[in-house]
Amino acid sequence: EFMQASWDIEEVQAKGIQHLASFVKDKSAFPCLLTCTEVITLAMKTHTDSLDLQVEGCTLLLEIFSQALEQGVMMALDESVASCLLHTVREHSENEEFLSMLCTLLMMVSASEVAAENLRKVGIVPDLLSILRRFLHNDEICVSCCAVLWSLAVSEDNADQAVLESALPVTSAVLQEHLQDGVVAESACSALWALALQGCLTDSDYEPTAALLLDALRMNPERAVLVKNGCLALASLVRLSETAALAILLDSKGSGLKLIKDEYHLHFNEPGVAEALCLLMNEMVQYEEVMLDMRSQKMEKLLSEIKLQFPFS
């Protein structure tokens, strides 16, 4: 009430945020803090020129959302809060350090389907792409933005297709730039999977995107989630075009089928990986030429192994 009575006074808002932050460590205060997110974001929107207030507000929101995720509480931000966050992003689009924090917050927020939909409605995608282009070297920003893109693309069947299509080259550039960074590559593979699911690729995209995903699998074989997401993305590409399937067979760096076998044997205890591989192979056998090659590579032996390993799945 104290903050709401004096929106225009920066010092009131700053003191209010600092006082709310003092309750973060008190677990019993958590339900009350959950109700304060709108007040905090509105204070940030009203005083965008004060970087100190922005940082303190963002830090407090990160604390609240971290606790919410730990306790399994889904924070469904409404459109007005999403709009406030977008306003803050735009006002500080050059400040790399602050954006890194803000993008982490957006990643946490977008875990909620309702919040992801509201972020999409207020038009955050072009801003995310702009941030990625400007800070392609920043691994934290890349991880967060790709995770938000994934949430936005999978949350809505009728998403703005043109906007999402413009995300493909930027997401591919992120993966290319950070191929050896497993955390970033994992997030970028997820985003590419979502874009493929939404049909955001053109004929000229299938081959290079498939080759890039295979590179990610080769560079990070030990990361089960990346292998799973990479295979799901490849399966989505293959479903759309035989070109992607042939790109897997004829990859210039070695047979994609052999890579798939090796990845399975590395993660044979991971049902998620096995399921993603089966889905990929299921898509590949729809093309006769590809199926003949799979036979010659004895892929049925691998399928039999998977069937034995997961008889009840």
From TrEMBL:
Q: What is its EC number?
A: 2.7.11.1
Supply the alphabetized keyword list: ATP-binding, Kinase, Nucleotide-binding, Serine/threonine-protein kinase, Transferase
Q: Name the top EC class.
A: transferase
TM helices/strands, residue ranges: none
- Catalyzed reactions per annotation: L-seryl-[protein] + ATP = O-phospho-L-seryl-[protein] + ADP + H(+); L-threonyl-[protein] + ATP = O-phospho-L-threonyl-[protein] + ADP + H(+)
Q: Name one GO molecular function term.
A: ATP binding
Protein name, entry field:
Serine/threonine kinase-like domain-containing protein STKLD1
Q: Which organism is it from?
A: Panurus biarmicus
Its gene is Stkld1_1
